[in-house]
Design the sequence.
């Protein structure tokens, strides 16, 4: 095990031990897991001197390594899923995972088939060749750890226009911290369409360590609407990655709402590989206490005539720290690209922190790219306006924060039920703020 | 949309093969042996007749430098620099201390004449309004060869001399301020500079004095295989004002030469420093052969309340530029400004920007950066705006635009915006389409169509930057003024 020699910190050594113990028990080919772990081990846990992790020092934040979660008992599953899902009103066909293992699955609607990842890995399912379609993510520590440890998940094959929403529900339960590694592969065939909801939940007070990866491979003219909610407990350390490989004339949308976790990092790699596609990525993050949330986004324009829109909002209370790192890459030859990236943050307390890094990297001359970043407190004039009309200050503030976040939460969603469910999460956060 | 023809033509006019200052002056030169060692540092220090504290300072820096690693985070690639293959000291053979220009080698005077730099006071006076007079410190390779208008400046109480002279004549001021803005171990190149700096300019403007003329330093690298390591220290005491200009050129050569300067500005209560640069080092040929590596550290400290530091730069030269003129806004109510136009052609690599560090209350900063890349060049804006916990009421506005000409170049923007204070308001935007809708509406109300209105506002904006340049440099920068940023990509 040459790779272990390069690891230094106790946490890194613990990860290496954990991998050595678990690799033979995990489904599928051990070789590719070893390769993935090797990629992680070469550099170890990223720290603040690693540019991509400058604001989220994983080496400092991840000192304890939780053991891999075991498959839960039936009673455990029932307990974990007894709470109604946030998206219940949307009546989706749901596949639920408890502690990183497939627990229950509704029948899939027409146009989509689901194969459990553990099964797909064990059988060498042909669609698995599409894993890692966005190769830029490969060297990333969180992605590599997921590839080394992935236990279960699902392969969704979308072949037609699916008329019922599909939900993936990930619950990490139990009173002892555990680590989970789940992987979802969504292959959308040309012309197909799907609306996918994804939730991550865990109890307060337990430092669970979920690491999830969702990969989209989207064929020409296909449509994807993806909504993700991080509702993990207040001690969780949640790493997540989304990759999207888009063909031509695709309409792709993904939004992420962060309402939980002590530390979270959501990474997005969106690659335009075919011409004339549209991709929109949005995110809303609500922080209080000592929470830390990082959104890191890389948009790769590799084809002509594509349009990308990125909008991220942070509301930061208490001693919370928000991080947004976004980069639009326009490759040589990706002419007529239209990319726009906006990050806005509102600091609601004296002790909050916001770090913004909106980058552009452009190698084509006939393109339009813009980025904006703002940071400040709630507008005094607007507050005064509302208070002059009789609203008490807390309500006036709540109204302003709600409309501020709303732009990233529900606007452009084209799904009222889901939008309302997400705004419900925002309202609950505002109510807890008091 | 792509760049308009007019812009393309103007950028072409300053392409790398149009470099006008590539001539070489043949001189008898006094050189230290090649390479870097304690002995070389002792040699430089002795040549300068420095006191022992200065030598100790240099040796300490050298020791620390040996433990440091060359940075590699910037965008740019270059062959490994062999620090032992450089002459660290090269000076034209002068009379011990030239008392007047008559004692300076006529070849040097010719060189400056060719560069259009006035070293004779009477020439400066002829036909020019007194208000536009400029005092010049001319640095040739490792030494300052002449400083003009010293007497008149001295009458106003302004000290304007080479830094070597200041170390000898005004040690108390140098010791008090040197290295307080850019610490010895700030970064690899600044530490190297601290060990081996050979000359540079020193300015001290006393309390309440408005410097009676523009001050300027003109840096010229002439000798082969040399590095230029100059150090500039400008102190504006309470309530004073000074405007300082810096220009630089080098001969056309196949080899790369290193220029690693350190500039420190200190503005005390209510003082203002305006620092302008037209950087025109030899950029290398069209295939990227030769050219100057311009790795400099420039930083201003708004130490006093309500102090102001303004950096204005027009960057057209150098094979590689790493340069981030910054402001530490320490004093309450202080203000930092950064105006930059960077044009890259050929195989040039520009990585430039600024840092605005808001520490004091009600501090404000403004960043306006325009990058234009053509040929096969890479042009990067890299900047940091940060507000610390106590910087309540801090405000920043940043606007950076870039324009590409052709499809073989690259433009990049890497801004860092870090806020730890709720009442700090930061706005960053990058694109010309972000013109204020109010202004656009106003112009269109008066009959202009949208394009005309946009052009009017954008041009007004660029002029804003150029107006920050003192007159003398505005002339040199004129070609750039008219460059339209139509077709900016953000």
Sequence:
């Amino acid at each position: 095990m040459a790779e272990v020699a390069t690891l230094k910190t106790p946490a890194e050594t613990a990860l290496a031990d954990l991998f050595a113990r678990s690799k033979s028990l995990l489904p599928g080919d051990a070789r590719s897991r070893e390769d993935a772990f090797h990629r992680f081990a070469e550099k170890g846990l990223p720290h603040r001197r690693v540019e991509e992790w400058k604001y989220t020092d994983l080496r400092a934040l991840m000192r304890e390594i939780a053991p891999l979660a075991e498959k839960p008992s039936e009673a455990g599953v029932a307990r974990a899923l007894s709470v109604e899902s946030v998206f219940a009103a949307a009546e989706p066909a749901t596949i639920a995972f408890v502690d990183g293992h497939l627990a229950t699955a509704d029948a899939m609607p027409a146009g989509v088939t689901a194969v459990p990842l553990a099964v797909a890995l064990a059988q060498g399912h042909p669609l698995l060749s599409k894993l890692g379609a966005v190769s830029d993510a490969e060297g990333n520590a969180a992605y590599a750890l997921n590839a080394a440890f992935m236990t279960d998940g699902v392969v969704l094959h979308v072949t037609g226009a699916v008329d019922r929403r599909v939900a993936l529900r990930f619950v990490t339960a139990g009173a002892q911290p555990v680590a989970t590694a789940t992987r979802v592969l969504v292959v959308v065939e040309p012309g197909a369409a799907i609306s996918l909801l994804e939730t991550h939940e865990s109890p307060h007070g337990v430092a669970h360590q979920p690491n999830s990866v969702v990969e989209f491979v989207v064929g020409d003219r296909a449509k994807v609407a993806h909504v993700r909610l991080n509702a993990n407990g207040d001690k969780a350390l949640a790493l997540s990655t989304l990759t999207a490989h888009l063909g031509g004339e695709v309409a792709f949308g993904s939004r992420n709402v962060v309402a939980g976790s002590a530390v979270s990092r959501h990474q997005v790699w969106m690659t335009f590989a075919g011409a004339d596609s549209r991709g929109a990525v949005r995110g809303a993050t609500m922080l209080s206490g000592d929470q830390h949330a990082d959104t890191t986004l890389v948009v790769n324009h590799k084809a002509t005539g594509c349009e990308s829109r990125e909008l991220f909002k942070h509301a930061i209370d208490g001693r919370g720290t928000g991080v947004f790192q976004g980069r639009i890459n326009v490759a040589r030859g990706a002419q007529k690209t239209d990319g726009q990236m906006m990050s806005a943050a509102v600091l609601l307390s004296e002790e909050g922190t916001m770090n913004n890094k909106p980058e552009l990297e452009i190698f084509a001359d006939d393109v339009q790219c813009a980025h904006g970043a703002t940071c400040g407190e709630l507008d005094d004039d607007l507050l005064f306006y509302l208070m002059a009309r009789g609203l008490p200050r807390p309500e006036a503030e709540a109204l302003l924060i709600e409309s501020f976040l709303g732009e990233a939460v529900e606007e452009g969603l084209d799904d009222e039920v889901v939008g309302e469910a997400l705004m419900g999460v925002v309202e609950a956060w505002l109510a807890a703020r008091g | 949309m792509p760049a308009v023809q007019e812009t393309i033509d103007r950028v072409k006019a300053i392409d790398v093969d149009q470099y006008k200052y590539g001539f070489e002056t043949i001189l008898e030169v006094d050189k230290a042996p090649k390479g870097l060692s304690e002995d070389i540092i002792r040699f430089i220090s002795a040549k300068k007749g420095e006191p022992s504290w200065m030598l100790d300072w240099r040796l300490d820096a050298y020791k620390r430098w040996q433990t440091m690693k060359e940075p590699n985070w910037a965008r740019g690639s270059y062959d490994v620099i062999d620090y032992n293959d450089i002459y660290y000291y090269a000076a034209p053979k002068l009379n011990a201390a030239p008392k007047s220009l008559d004692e300076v080698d006529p070849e040097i005077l010719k060189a400056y004449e060719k560069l259009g730099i006035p070293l004779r006071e009477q020439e400066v006076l002829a036909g020019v309004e007194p208000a536009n007079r400029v005092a010049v410190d001319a640095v040739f390779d490792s030494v300052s060869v002449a400083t003009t208008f010293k007497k008149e400046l001295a009458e106003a109480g302004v000290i304007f001399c080479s830094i070597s002279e200041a170390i000898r004549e005004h040690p108390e001021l140098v010791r008090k301020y040197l290295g307080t803005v850019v610490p010895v171990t700030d970064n690899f190149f600044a530490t190297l500079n601290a060990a081996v700096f050979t000359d540079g300019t020193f300015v001290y403007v006393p309390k309440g004095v408005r410097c009676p003329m523009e001050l300027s330093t003109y840096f010229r690298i002439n000798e082969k295989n040399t590095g230029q390591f100059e150090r500039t220290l400008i102190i504006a005491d309470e309530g004073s004002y000074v405007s300082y200009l810096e220009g630089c050129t080098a001969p056309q050569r196949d080899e790369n030469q290193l220029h690693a300067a350190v500039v420190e500005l200190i503005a005390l209560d209510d003082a203002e420093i305006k620092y302008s640069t037209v950087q025109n080092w030899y950029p290398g040929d069209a295939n990227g052969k030769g050219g100057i590596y311009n790795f400099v550290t420039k930083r201003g400290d708004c130490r006093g309340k309500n102090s102001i530091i303004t950096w204005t730069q027009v960057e057209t030269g150098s094979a590689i530029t790493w340069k981030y003129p910054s402001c530490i806004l320490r004093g309450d109510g202080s203000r930092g400004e950064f105006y930059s136009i960077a044009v890259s052609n050929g195989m040039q690599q520009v990585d430039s920007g600024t840092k605005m560090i808001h520490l004091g209350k009600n501090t404000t900063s403004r960043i306006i950066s325009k990058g234009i890349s053509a040929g096969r060049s890479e042009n990067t804006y890299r900047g940091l705006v940060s507000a610390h916990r106590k910087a309540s009421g801090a405000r920043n506005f940043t606007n950076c635009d870039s324009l590409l000409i052709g499809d073989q170049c690259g433009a990049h923007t890497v801004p860092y915006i870090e806020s730890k204070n709720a009442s700090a308001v930061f706005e960053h935007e990058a694109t010309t389409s972000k013109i204020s809708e109010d202004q656009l509406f106003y112009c269109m109300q008066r009959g202009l169509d949208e394009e005309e209105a946009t052009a009017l506002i954008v041009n007004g904006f660029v002029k804003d930057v150029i107006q920050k340049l003192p007159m003398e440099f505005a002339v040199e920068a004129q070609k750039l003024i008219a460059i339209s940023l139509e077709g900016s990509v953000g």
